[in-house]
Structure formats: C-alpha cells, structure tokens
Design brief:
Layout (H helix, E strand, L loop, with lengths): L3 E7 L3 H6 L5 E2 L1 H14 L4 H18 L4 E7 L5 H19 L3 E6 L8 H5 L3 E7 L6 H19 L1 H23 L6 H17 L2 H9 L4 H27 L2 H8 L3 H34 L4 H29 L8 H24 L3
Parallel strand pairs: 1-3, 1-4, 4-5
Antiparallel strand pairs: 2-3
C-alpha cells in the first residue's frame, strides 16, 4: 500500500507562539507531546484539538495495517506569503524524508485549509478531516470574514475614506469648534456638517459633481449649484429663527399637540418654499441658457419644469396655510386648477418627448 502521511497544519503558528514548539514534529509520541503542551498552554486552542484528531486518524489507519505516519507543521504568525513559504519548505522536507505518496490533511478551520494547493504540489490528498470544537466553526468563519472587512475598511482607499476619513473630519471639526469661542454651538454645527455629508452621499452628489467636471460648462454649473445650496441653507436658518420664537413651538417643548405641530410645520413650509423655489428656478434658468444653442429639446424641458414649478407655488403655499389652520374648509379652486395644470404640462411633455424619441 502507498505510504500515507497524516498531517496537521497550523498556518498561523499558534503552536510555536503559545507552546514554543519547533516544527516539523514527526511521530505519534512527539505529536501527542506537542498537543499536550499546546492544550496546557491554552486549553481553548483549536490546534490542540486538531492534533488529537490527527492522532485518532493515525491510530485507526495503523490498526487497519496501513503504512502511515503523522506530522505537525506550522507557518508563521504573520500569515500570508511568509507562512505559506514556511509550510511549503516543511512539506518538501517531509516528502524527502518520509517518502509518502498520499496525504490526509487534518484541519481545525477554514484558514488552515488554504494550504491545500501547496500540498497538491507534492502529493495526492487522500482525505480532508476537519476537527472543529462544537459551535466554534461558525464563530471562526465569522471572525475571518469580519477581519477581511476590517482590513478593507482600513487599507482600501475606496472604503477607508468613509470609515476613517469622514469620522476623522467630524472629530477634528468638533475639537476645533469646542476650542473656539462658539463652543456652545459645537454640537449643532457638527450635526450640520454630518447632515450635509449624509445628503451628499445619499443623493450621490459627489458623483454628480464628478460628472459635471467633465462638462465644458462645469464652472457655471458648479457655481449655480453652490448658489442654490446656499439659498436653501439660508432658508433653513430663517425657518429655525422664526420657528423658535413661535408660541406653538414653546408648547411643543412641553408636550406633543397635533395642532401646534401642524402650525409649526405649516409656517416652516411657507417660509422654506420661497427659498427652495428660487434655488430650483436658478438651476433651471442656468440650464436653459446652457442647452439653448446645442440641445434645444433639453432647453425646452427646463422651461417646462420652470413653468410647472411656478404653477406649483400657490398650491404648496395653500398646503402650508391648511397646516397652520385646519379649520380652512377645502382648497380654493384656483389651487386645484394650477396643480392639475402643472402636472398635465409635465406629463404631456414627457409623453411627446418619448414619442419623438428625443430624450
């Protein structure tokens, strides 16, 4: 019968780090001694259980009269290429020394099984025996996956800018604000920065800016976008200043009341509407002039959206009034007409554009 080597692989060299064992270790008695040393050093070490499992496999094959030997090899605590190189050298040494033709690999988990390609280079793998302590398999695999994600978050620039860069900016901003004369507002300003960061990433604005940069009109589009953003921010500040002074807002601090909440929401909507409409209108007007000479259909689209935006102003304003005063019975007919008209204009435009295949 061909000679079989029962081999235990400790890729991260726990046996050397924890028990001071120098590999390769050959022979049943020597492997058993090494297993006892490892388990005495750390009773929870899975490699010790794998070694005991390998001895059991060895004893079974020996009892059946097979020509079998057992060995323990280890890699390096640094893992990776260095560990695999050390394992390869030890397998080559054992091959020359023991002249085995088949290998039974006894493993304690997924990581040690990554050395299989190395063993295939020297011998046929007869069997793979996994010795896993009860309920530890899923835990080990979860740790391996978690470790890979952590390395990606730390060293991959595609992810590190979010996992490290953004928290770093926030911590730096908070520290600078706290050391400044406006430390009392540090939390509010930090929330503002975080909110802007979430909006930018959530609406994919960073990629939109990247696409704008490839446009010949990048500077105009960027300045108009920044102007619109500043207008909206100023509107938010104006809303906050107004709402804080409302008696209904003071009542909400004492307890939630639907009427007070609706009033505050209505006031916010009415004030904020003008700023938002101006910001959107600015973008549409700028786009109209940019598209007018080369892409007429896109210029028409901007005009259609601008008209719809103007028509929607009064309906949204009246919604704010209804929130402030729920006793208002129904919306004026002009509001309903304007809403329907604005919606029809947009629908008709896109139907025609799709029919003519111009978008």
């Amino acid at each position: 019968m061909p000679k079989t080597l029962v081999i235990v692989v400790d890729r991260d060299n726990d046996v050397g780090v924890k028990a001071g064992i120098i590999t390769p270790v050959v022979g049943r008695d020597n492997v058993l001694k090494a297993a006892n040393q490892v388990l005495l050093a750390d009773p929870e070490e899975a490699d010790g259980n794998a070694m005991m499992g390998a001895i059991k496999v060895y004893d079974q094959l020996k009892a059946e009269g097979e020509d079998v030997e057992i060995a323990l090899i280890a890699g390096s605590e640094e893992s990776g290429i260095k560990a695999d190189t050390r394992i390869r050298n030890q397998v080559a040494s054992l091959k020359e020394r023991l002249k085995f033709e088949e290998v039974i690999l006894v493993s304690d988990g997924v990581e040690d099984e990554e050395v299989l390609p190395i063993i295939y280079g020297f011998s046929t793998v007869r069997s793979l025996v996994r010795v896993v302590v009860k309920h530890s398999k899923n835990i080990e695999e979860s740790y391996i996956i978690l470790g890979k994600y952590i390395r990606m978050a730390l060293y991959d620039s595609r992810y590190s800018k979010y996992f490290l860069g953004v928290p770093g900016i926030l911590l730096l901003a908070y520290a600078l604000l706290y050391l400044s004369p406006i430390r009392a507002y540090a939390g509010y300003l930090l929330s503002l920065i975080l909110g802007l960061a979430l909006i930018i990433r959530g609406f994919n604005l960073d990629n939109a800016v990247g696409q704008m940069r490839r446009s010949p009109n990048f500077l105009i589009k960027f300045l108009s976008a920044m102007s619109g953003l500043l207008i909206v921010i100023f509107g938010g500040i104006k809303v906050a200043q107004t709402v804080v002074l409302l008696p209904q807002f003071q009542q909400l601090q004492k307890g939630f009341q639907l009427y007070d909440f609706g009033y505050v929401l209505g006031v916010s909507l009415i004030i904020m509407e003008t700023y938002i409409w101006v910001a959107l209108g600015l973008q549409l007007v700028v786009n109209f002039f940019l598209y007018f000479r080369k892409k007429r259909i896109l210029a028409i689209r901007e005009i259609v959206l601008l008209i719809a935006l103007i028509l929607f102003y009064l309906p949204v304003y009246n919604i704010g009034l209804v929130l402030m005063n729920p006793q208002i019975s129904g919306l004026p007919m002009i509001v309903i007409v304007l809403s329907v008209l604005a919606t029809l204009i947009i629908i008709v435009y896109y139907i025609l554009a799709d029919y003519l295949k111009v978008l």
